[in-house]
Amino acid sequence: MPEKIYRNLIIEKPKFTLLILVILLLSFGYFAKDFKLDASSDSLLLENDQDLKYLREVNARYGSKDFLVLTYTPKDELLEPNTIENLNNLKEDLTKLNWVNNVITILDVPLLKNNDDPVAERIKNFKTLSSEDVDKQRGFEEIINSPIYKEFIISKDGNTSGIIVYIKNDKKLSELISQKNSYLDKRDKGQLTSEEKKQYRKFLKNYDNYKKLYNQKNHQNINEIRNIIKQYKDTAKIHLGGIPMIADDMMTFIKNDIIVFGAGVFAFIVLTLWFIFRSLRWVFFPLLSCFFSVSIMIGLLGLFSWKVTVISSNFIALMLILTMAMNIHMSVRYLQFKKENPNISNNDAILWTSKRMFWPILYTVLTTICAFLSLIFSGIKPIIDFGWMMTVGLIVSLFITFTLLPAVLSILSKENLDYKGEKKSRITSLLSKVAQKNTKTIFTSASIVILVSIIGISKLEVENSFINYFDEKTEIYKGMKSLELNKHEIDLFFKDGKLALPSVEARANEYFVMTSPEQSSAMGKYNAKDQSVENLVKQTEVWGIKPRNSEQRCALDLLLRDSIKLVTLMGPAGTGKTLLALACGLRKVFDEGAYARILVSRPIVPLGRDIGYLPGTKEEKLFHWMQPIYDNLEFLCSSTGGESRETLQWVMDSQKIEMEAMTYIRGRSLPKVYLIIDEAQNLTPHEVKTIISRAGDGTKVILAGDPSQIDNPYLDKDSNGLTYTVGKFVNHEIYGHIYLDKTERSELAALAAEIL
């Protein structure tokens, strides 16, 4: 009976079937206008989530304000008159925006220790950094040492200030949210009447429409503030943050993902279909099914106000692939049957194909649906929605495959469906022979793979951090990462000098910047033996050099630890790699006597054209290649407080520092040497192996360089010896690595490293 109905309705009356499908397409296509994207925080939580209910109660009781956060790092010092003027101008420009309520900067912070008046008087008539008669230096020190303001509105180093931009409250949206919450509370308690349910559905439509307008307005606001920030890029480095910005960017990302992945999958489908069929009509038929399936599904999403989130943004790409697969199976089986039975009627061939392919495709769809339906038990709203969305989408694709394609095939005449015959696939034939001849081997191998996969499945970890949705700019191992702890754990770390972290995954000698919600912070090095984070080596100054940032602190710690025998320092020009290595070498050799001497070497690879033969002795020839080392030595000697020339001469006369070219290092054994290899990115992996293998008992090796500045024409950022070393030694306990990304040489050097 079903076979007879299918034949009469779909195959015998294809035009009627196509008419119905076109009506469905146009009907659901109309609702496609209501298709919505949602990147708000509400889309991430279930409406009956207890934490969400608590948040609603808190917001209702105390109110809440949306705000944006800017980090402001001026090119000059924060207390410079130009900086204060620029900061005031930026505040004025931000305040002029009609959607901004008020702006708070470091210049608005009340100063209570700026004079010696009674406390009551100081509170009554408090001053700020923008006040004319204020001692700005004293005020700045008050702010940076304040437990309230430190690392909140100003960074620990005093170089970066925070700016809070409060956004005007949208009264209508607040009223709509309050009304929505009221409906939801009644619904959860089962108190909604049938009339109220109708009102709620009508309300949701109005709510979504206004929310759409609000999101568009928010997008315009974000663009406006970014345009203002661009005007100050020459005077300061400014970054924008805050929930409204994140939500807007996420919306943009979702739209881009749909377009990029959708276009990519479409191109893939076209190429695949052409490769299989080598005929335009057989490329067109599956594409037509894909178009109908996706269009109807988008219409369904719009009809039921089913919003697409970050999680479900790629459902279109998945639907296209799955619909194409169904259509390819149908089309190939139809063409094969027509080839084997040339005298059979077209309608009989279509019916036979549909009967043969229905159950295999149905089972495939059902198993796939089961996979997606498993997502509904996750307890996370966007994942649940994605599971249901793909389930409905697969049902739509199944329906379209067994209605549209047979109807189209039935309408077309036999002459229009001529098929030259499929070419015998060499790959298929080869795989068939291998399978027939090696059955036991294949079965055994498959069993092993399954067992290994089961072990691997048990070690899978869930990453639910949405911050990782954003682009990761750093492609290499940096040697340090952030870790959020509670204040009690950080207090224990300061008290005991170490903190056990058995559950944290880290590499040997990796550094952690530990922070807590209570604004406390600490830095430590991971000890792989006892799975703990330990204090850094106490650092004051090393030959007049003090670390200027967290990366330099970590680098100094690595360089001063005798237990770490190999250190790699990466980073752009001017980050202090060579200077830090030399300073620590001078301390270890001259002050502590931990090593017999310093040996500095660098590859003989020129920048640009080689100047050719250099006359003179070996030392005279090397002088020009080693000039950067002499420059750093001279700077260090001048930083100690004495006469730089005399100190430098004393260092060189001690014969405890030696300059050597890479050419002469093979065959040497270097015991108790502090070995510094500068510009190591110009070395091959083989050369690095040769150098490190020269290390004798008690020797420490430091490789410094920048993979983005390679002068060797036969190397790149991935194949050079420095990068190669990082990859090979990364998990060894006698090795440490730090990537320094902040140029400290000069303002010009920092700008060049950033923009060139």
Feature tags:
756 residues; alpha/beta; Multidrug efflux transporter AcrB transmembrane fold; 6-stranded parallel β-sheet; 5-stranded mixed β-sheet; globular
Considering the protein shown, what is the CATH homologous superfamily of the largest domain? Answer: Multidrug efflux transporter AcrB transmembrane domain
Helix content: 40-55%
Give the CA-based shape: globular
Q: Look at the structure and give the CATH class of the largest domain.
A: Mainly Alpha
Q: Would you identify the CATH architecture of the largest domain?
A: Up-down Bundle
Q: Look at the helices and sheets and give the structural class.
A: alpha/beta
Residue-averaged pLDDT: 78
Q: In total, how many domains does the architecture comprise?
A: 5
Main β sheet profile: 6 strands, parallel
Q: How much strand? A: 5-15%
Count, helices = 25
Enumerate the spans where pLDDT stays under 50 for 5 or more consecutive residues.
464-476, 606-614
Question: What does the radius of gyration come to?
Answer: 35 Å
| Total number of beta strands | 15
Strand order of the largest sheet: 12-11-13-14-10-15
CATH third-level topology of the largest domain:
Multidrug efflux transporter AcrB transmembrane fold
Q: What is the terminal separation in angstroms?
A: 74 Å
Task: Describe what this molecule looks like in 3D.
With 756 residues, the protein is an alpha/beta fold. It folds into 5 domains: 2-38 and 246-411, Up-down Bundle (Multidrug efflux transporter AcrB transmembrane fold); 50-231, no CATH class; 424-454; 476-535, Archaeosine Trna-guanine Transglycosylase, Chain: A, domain 4, CATH 2.30.130; 551-607 and 614-755, Rossmann fold (3-Layer(aba) Sandwich), CATH 3.40.50.300. It is 52% helix and 11% strand. The protein is built from 25 helices and 15 strands. Helix 23 links the parallel strand 13 (673-677) and strand 14 (700-705). The longest helix is centred in the first third of the chain and has 37 residues, at 194-230. It is globular and about 105 Å long. Residues 464-476 and 606-614 have low confidence and may be disordered.
